[in-house]
Amino acid sequence: MPISSQYFSYTIFLLILQLLLPTILYASNDCMYTSIIAFGNSLTDTGRCSDGRLIIDFLAKGLGLPFIPPYVGSKENGNKTELGKGVNYAVVGAYALNSSFHEARGVFNFLTNVSLGDEFEWFKRSLSSFCSSFSHCKLKIRHSLFLVGEIGGNDYSMELVAGKSIKQVKSFVPLVIDKITTTVKKLIELGGKIFVVPNLLPIECTPLALTLFKSSDAKMYDNTTGCLISIKKLEEYHNQLLQRELHKIRVNFPKVNVIYADYYNAALQLYRSPTQFGFVQPLRACCGGGGPYNYNPSALCGERSSTVCAHPNRFVNWDEIHLTEAAYRMIYKSVFKGSYSIPRFSSLCPAIAS
């Protein structure tokens, strides 16, 4: 289904808004964030499904913070000092929606039943672990950067892998967007002032999607990237709705800074012009079990029958769904130091651009 002219017009409006927003951003504390509070899935999880660092790791370094510890590990160790620098609540395989929603549709997550709602509840319960009083909590939250996502990709990919059509998956995109933006608003109610909300990374360019949904029809592929057009349209729909709803939050909460992080287009440039960024294998996985895209469901990355490329830094894709450290570094630079955010993060935090 083509994207409607209404969404196209709104996208143009947001591009214009990007040029204007740096002059009207609510006064910040000049990038002096004391911690990062992160929610999400395996793109953020401290297990690091990659050959090295993730976007959140580069962000922490750029802000002068240590790697952000996981909620579960810090909770068990009682390490309040580290929690003071932030907490990472992200879990591999996490959904935006509750797992019960997908299970009712006959789709089951073999990795976890954790959702964004669960991660938010963990955050609320753990407030006493990194602040001593209500007033201290408010101050701590005020000076924390909240990274809400990427989240939602598993909701779509799990359903697609289970055999649901693009139309069926597209029907619940508004529910995913509502869950993300509702979480942001709940965090605002708790005192949050600065939010980075990423859109989706290109699922249509993953070895998993390219293998499972391969087609002999060349028209099914984007001729600039080699990625699947049908899934691309689904993701564009998600990203456009997310932009629209985040703009509403900015209007309703003018003293809060909400950054739309365009992971999608920052990553897409790596697939469009790989050699420009030092990549030679944009679609093939570095780690996998063979096949055109080095993805084999019976020989996943990490299993004995899988192999690993000699130079991961020349690959965009690490395994069937995750990227390499080199790719994540490029996305970080584009989003947090460059122009792939609305408004520009570097306008809010000039020190990070140096």
- Summed up, the helix count is 15
Fraction of residues in β-strands: 5-15%
CATH-defined fold name:
Rossmann fold
How many individual β-strands?
10
Query: What distance separates the N and C termini?
Result: 43 Å
Percentage of residues in helical conformation: 40-55%
Mean pLDDT: 89
**Rg estimate, integer Å:** 20 Å
Largest β sheet strand count, sense and barrel closure:
6 strands, mixed
Show unreliable segments: 1-8, 13-29
Strand order of the largest sheet: 2-1-3-4-5-10
What would your notes on this structure say?
Belongs to the 'GDSL' lipolytic enzyme family. This protein is α/β, with parallel strands linked by helices and 354 residues long. It has one domain: Rossmann fold (3-Layer(aba) Sandwich). It is 42% helix and 10% strand. A six-stranded mixed beta sheet has the order 2-1-3-4-5-10. A two-stranded parallel sheet has the order 6-9. It has a two-stranded antiparallel sheet with strand order 7-8. Helix 1 crosses helix 12 and helix 13 (263-272) packs across helix 14 (325-337).
Concise account of the structure shown:
It comes from Lactuca saligna. The protein has 354 residues and is of the alpha/beta class. The chain is 42% helix and 10% strand.
List the helices and strands and how they pair.
Layout (H helix, E strand, L loop, with lengths): L4 H16 L14 E5 L15 H8 L8 H7 L2 H4 L2 E3 L10 H5 L12 H11 L7 H9 L1 E5 L4 H9 L4 H5 L2 H17 L4 E5 L8 H6 L16 H24 L4 E5 L1 H10 L8 E5 L1 E2 L18 E2 L6 E3 L7 H13 L3 E2 L2 H4 L6
Parallel strand pairs: 1-2, 1-3, 3-4, 4-5, 6-9
Antiparallel strand pairs: 5-10, 7-8
